[in-house]
Design goal:
4 domains; nine-stranded mixed β-sheet; alpha+beta; 800 residues; globular; Spore Coat Polysaccharide Biosynthesis Protein SpsA, Chain A; Immunoglobulin-like
Amino acid sequence: MEREMIEVVRDRFSLADKNKYFIQGYLPKECRLEVYLDQKRQDNFVLTKEKNLSTVEIELPENLGAYKKILVFICKDGKRYRWFSGKAADIQRKKNMPQYYIDYLDIDFQKKICVVSGWAVYHSPLNIYVTDSRGNKLECKIEQVNRRDVQEQFHEWDVGKFTGFLAEIPFEQEKSIRIVFEGGKCRTIRNISLQKSKIAGGQVRGYYNKGLQYIRTYGIAGFMKKLVKKIEAQKNRPYSYEKWLAQNQLSEAELDAQRRKRFSYAPLISIVIPLYNTPISYLDELLASIIGQTYGNFQLCLADGSDNEKIEEFIKKSYGKESRIRYKRLEKNDGISENTNRAIEMASGDFIMFSDHDDTLAPNALFEIVNTINENPGTDVVYTDEDKVTMDGGHYYEPHFKPDFNLDMLRSNNYICHIFTVKREIVNKAGMLRKEYDGAQDYDFILRCCEQAKNIQHVPKILYHWRNHPASTAGNPESKMYAFEAGRKALEAHYERMGIQAEVEMTPLLGRYRTRYAISGHPVVSIIIPNKDHIEDLDKCLKSIYEKTTYDNYEIILVENNSEKKETFAYYEKVKERYGNIQVLTWKREFNYAAINNFAVTYAKGEYLLFLNNDVELISEKWIEEMLGICQREDVGAVGAKLYYPDDTVQHAGVVIGLGGVAGHIFCGFAREEYGYFARLVSVQDYSAVTAACMMTKRKLFQNLEGFDEGFQVAFNDVDYCMKVRQAEKLVVFTPYAELYHYESKSRGREETEAQKKRFAGEVQRFEEKWPDILEKGDPFYNKNLTLKRGDCSLRKRNE
């Protein structure tokens, strides 16, 4: 039995029934449970098994205090394993008490502030406050946060939307503080030590207790195996962002060199920021980060719609002598779009740059933007990478290393976000921000600007720090549901302007959109499937097509390739009789995937070609409609699907050039339900290539590009074709909404001969000689800061 499969994740009381206790965690697929109170076996429990977490609901007796322990065992293969062990007295103390969880704790000893976030629930109204160790209440700011995940976890009770909290707790001489969760006459208290030695000691005790629990459950042998795996995981762990930041920060000497740099073109950058009751500390950090830029030809345009004079007084007192700052107090607060427009009206720069009022810039942000403008004459738009920063500004995390301009990703979500800088002429063409899209006004504006722009540049550097707090979508996306609906409408308006018939839907992942393109006409799609024996796989493939496909105007071309079994040829005759739209061609020369498919295309009747392996099985019924709707676009040359191994892990979700050597599948091996890096696994987007295990392209384009290069007999022929598509200035699009199982490379017999190895090495060399630029410069739909050694979008080490 896999030891990793037996682990408890959480345990708690039900809010609806005071005697019902939930234990959730991972269980083996085939097992049964035994529940004990001391030595007495209990039958009053219910086990609910789901794909991920399983839940055990135990009905506890009123006299729980009469027992010492609650034990839950897994029984499998004649053996019994302890899954859960809890002291009855400890569990009894939690009964009918407020429940909480701390998921973020940060103590800044320099600024003397403690930041705590988490959630708390109870079956009656809950009050959260902070005291010192003597019980005296402390003044602090506690904000409520919408936590959908908590609502889902406590499904048995309506806990309300705002179960989350974020507290900023200032301290002076206190050695500890207490967070109190009070519901009626019941209180749960969390002690937080403010002494560094005790904090470290608490971490050590935590590791010790965890290790001890593991030994009790699995024994010394199991613990040692776990320890070895931990050590291996530590060796192979992804590069941490903290370490990456430390090794990639510019030195003072480098920053000074930037300050001395003189560009041949030094545009005036107007930074426009709408203000509204901005916390002074945040505003001060933002302004300091702007004033400290290594490129100095900028103006800062501040439009203040606040309902008090605090900001105005602060600006005059602290920055009154700074000539590059333009400040205007607005007569009224007209909302973020109109307030931003007032700031744009103040601007006289060649380029307009946007920033939120509580974030910060890297010191080289403007320098890098202007440097890119100089290196790429005629630039209309520049955007950069970004990360998030905690409320206290002390911790940077979640870096978003973006691809170069990716139209279909932009149509899936506003991945550009920060920093967005646009030429004034483009703003004049696109128009100002629109109030009807408040909440997604930046998305609407970016879409309109990109429609007008001919030259969009991306700076692959973290130049913007997005502050995470409950009022921002960075910290709490569900706090602004109206914003996501506004984003959907903005995307619909974009399609209307572009003359594209499409419907836009919000997805369960907030901020992500799905586009359903209308299909023009009723074109024939030719599905081309090479085959050598393996009729069981082929039969599974064909049955799934005929049983599930909802699009009705297609033909199937089977290309017989040197089969050796009589049953195969009998099967061909059988399917031709069974299905009226199948033809079987015979390829008589040696196996050459490129040549076989080129041969089949000459017999195809379809306006669109769909290359398909014989070892795939359909999942999505509307797979053809999904791919065809995208492929019919004038700017698209090829469309790829999302493929899974039989164990529901990802086999294909796009190809990155340079990954693993020449080209590799990104996110290969990820679980089917995972979102991937910034939800790339569940977003339609452009890639440099997709696999021809399931790929659609226009027949006319295929012929114009002279089909697959037959010099790639087995490997890289599909990637090479996609490179030709990109060279023809057409897009290669991946869609996660056309899903299939792929049983992997059964289309031909497996060989490991010296001849095969030599052939593969030759194909590698051929690809490298044919496409040296992208291998040298890097895949534009990836990011140079992400590793090429693994497909999980982890960070690239400095010496890699």
